Every structure is written in structure tokens, then in C-alpha cells.
Amino acid sequence: MRSLRRPRRQRGAALITALLLAALAAVMVSGMLWRQWGAIQREQAARQSQQARWLLRGGVDWARLILREAANNTQVVALDQPWAVPLAEANLDKFLAAGRQESLGQVWLEGHIVDAQARFNLTDLATAGRPNPDAVQALQRLCGAIGADPGLAQQIAQAIAAAQLPNAPVLPIRQLQDLARVSPAIAAQLPRLAPYVTVLPSPTPVNANTAGVQVLAAVLGVDAAQATQLLARRAQQHFNDLQAISQALGPAVPFTVDATLVGVSSSYFEAVARVRIGEFEYAEQALIQRVGGLTQVLRMQRVAPWLAAAQPARVA
User: Fold this and answer.
1) How confident is the model at residue 45 (pLDDT cuts 50, 70, 90)?
2) Domain residues for 256?
3) Which range (10-19, 140-149, 200-209, 259-268) has the least confidence?
């Protein structure tokens, strides 16, 4: 009986050992397959990201071409011009597959160009390290109109001025998010300010043909009703010069338009585009400067894909 029990116990132990080895081998194989799948996914994501960046570079070149063509016709920048028409999401599959035997899959592109000078340029707040009182007052009026603290205007102006000084003790302010390091109060108000202000490389006037009610009222020093009246007039015919703006306000509002704060043309534009390849999405924003018939990209940065969604050309 003992001799019969011993082989059974040995066979049981061998069976358990075999099961454990099989389970260990399954775990090892599944781990290898998981790592291989992850490597394939990373390689695919890197390839799609590279393809998306190349497509977006093409989109930026298209934006530059549109802006150059617009400059050949007129120096006035308005929302009734071709550059202001957004590109709705378009399928590039057939276009990209032309001359190829295989399809590249579903590739979609959308984007739009916006006038960067439709917003108040915070660089106007200071010149050569000294605050500009007129620009500061305009920003104070804008802050009051959008529900922000008007006292922030002076703080921002001082920060801009300090950054312009030779051997400045602070880092330069090149983008709006750079203001977050100035003070917690400014950082807390940046989301409220972002739709109405910007930071451009040089001082620029606000374009009366593209600005919204709040920005236009702030730089002109008029109330919201009068600014709304200007938007209604420009919807019928854009302003060709500053005199047209004064005439649109009428004789009841006697004032002189400050050419340093208000204009009818623009030199800076933002082109935002999104590429979708299958489930992969990638979007970038380019700041384009136009000088005469020449255009150059000053910077490109990745942004959230929803920012590239087509937006109406009319700014309220």
C-alpha cells in the first residue's frame, strides 16, 4: 500500500509543478506580448504625430499664402476678406493617396485664421521701460467691462515695463501665460483676460475691423452701445481709415482716434489647425507676422484640438 501511495503523491506534485510552470510561461508570454503591443502603439503614435506635424506645416504654408494674396489686394484687414473664412473639417484621404496604390486611411484637417490685433496688445502698455498712460487707461476700461479688477492694468504695465529695461531683473514676457509669474492676482485673472488680450512682439494698434465690442469700446473710450453701433456699421462696410470710424460714431461723439491704439490694418495673425488621423488628434497654433507681401512664422506651439474648431468670423 505504501508503494502505491508514493507514486500517486509524486504524480500529484508533478501535475501541480507542471501547472505552475504553464501559468508562469503564460504570464511571461503575455508580458512579452503586452510590451510588444505597447511598442507597436508607441511607434504608430510617433508615426502619426510626425505625419500630423507635416500636414500642419502645409496648413501653415496655406495660411501664409492666403495672407500674402490678401496683402496684394489691400492693406486694410477686415472680416469680409478670404483669410477670415474658416476651413471646415475636410477629408484629405483621396488627396494624399493620389498616385499611390494604397489608401492612407481617414485623414481630416480643419482650421482657421484669426487676427491677433483684434485683441488688446499688452506690449502697448510700456515703451522703452516706461508705462504708457493712455494704454493703461484703455486696459483699465477693458478690465472693468469684462468683470476683472481694473487695478491689474497698472501691475501688468509695470511688469511689461520692467521686462523691457536693459539687463532687466525679470524674464521677458513673450506670451500671455508668462504673466502668471508676476503675481497670484494676475494669474487668477488670466482666464478672464485671455479672450480679450494678447502679447505680441511689438506694439500694435487694435484693428477696428476685427475687434469685439469690449476691446473696441476700451481703446476708443466709448460705451458698449456706441461700440455696438460701430460693429453694425462695419458689417455693412468695413472701415478703410480712421476718419471712417469717427464718421461712424457721428457728431454726437466728438473725439480724435488715437492711431497708436486703433487702426484698420494688422501685421500679426494666428493660424490654428487640427489634423485627425483615425482616432489620433493633433493641433498646433502658429503666430504669423506679415510685413507688406512677406510673411514669416514667429512661433508654433501645440494646443488643445478643440481650439482648432471652426469659429464664426464675426467677433461679438
Assistant:
1) low
2) 120-260
3) 10-19
**310: pLDDT strictly greater than 60:** no
Residues 197, 119 contacting (CB under 8 angstroms): yes
How many domains does one find in the chain? 2
Q: Is the dihedral of CA 269, 275, 279, 281 positive or negative?
A: negative
Burial of 85 (0-12, 13-18, 19+ CB in 10 A): middle
Question: Can you tell me the distance from the alpha carbon of 164 to that of 98, in angstroms, rounded to the nearest whole number?
Answer: 51
Taking the C-alpha atoms of residue 61 and residue 51, their distance in angstroms, rounded to an integer, is: 16
In angstroms, the CA 220 to CA 133 distance is: 14
How far apart are the C-alpha atoms of 153 and 141, rounded to whole Å? 9
Better-predicted residue by pLDDT, 71 or 119: 119
Q: Report residue 193 as a C-alpha cell.
A: 483676460
Cα–Cα distances in angstroms (integers) from residue 262 to residues 220, 226, 243, 295, in the given order: 7, 15, 11, 22
Worst-scoring range by mean pLDDT, 59-68, 105-114, 119-128, 198-207?
Answer: 105-114
Location of C-alpha cell 504553464: 22
Provide the whole-model pTM. 0.80
Burial of 291 (0-12, 13-18, 19+ CB in 10 A): exposed
Residue 282 is part of a domain; what is its CATH number? 3.30.1300.30
Mark whether 85 and 159 lie in a shared domain.
no
| CB neighbour list of residue 265: distance below 8 Å, 6 or more residues apart | 75, 76, 77, 207
Answer whether 162's CB lies under 8 Å from 129's CB: yes
Strand partners, 98: none
Name the pairing type of β-strands 126-127 and 262-263: unpaired
Q: How many CA atoms lie within 13 A of 223 on its CB side?
A: 3
Domain shared by 124 and 111, yes or no: no
